[in-house]
Write a structure and sequence with these properties.
It contains no helices and six strands. It is mainly beta and about 70 residues long. A three-stranded antiparallel sheet has the order 4-1-6, with no helix packed on it. A three-stranded antiparallel sheet has the order 3-2-5, with no helix packed on it.
């Protein structure tokens, strides 16, 4: 969801409250057992040192919100 372009300091990822399932946020290894777990309505702030990915454990397409914090 975010590519490290060297200008982004951190990112806030929010699993929308209208979503039905768990999301996991992290590096390229984000998956069913890896990454920061986010229940619907939860957010996490991550420093960006590489690309950021989201794994969707729910059936069907769901969206997340992102806020970029640049230098």
């Amino acid at each position: 969801i975010v590519t490290d372009d060297g200008l982004i300091r951190s990112v806030i990822v929010t699993n929308l409250s209208t979503n039905t399932g768990l999301k996991r946020v992290g590096d390229a290894g984000a998956g069913a057992a890896n990454g920061v777990p986010l229940q619907p309505g939860d957010s996490v702030t991550l420093d960006v040192s590489s690309d950021i990915y989201v794994y969707n454990a729910a059936a069907g397409a769901e969206s997340v919100a992102i806020t970029l914090i640049k230098d």
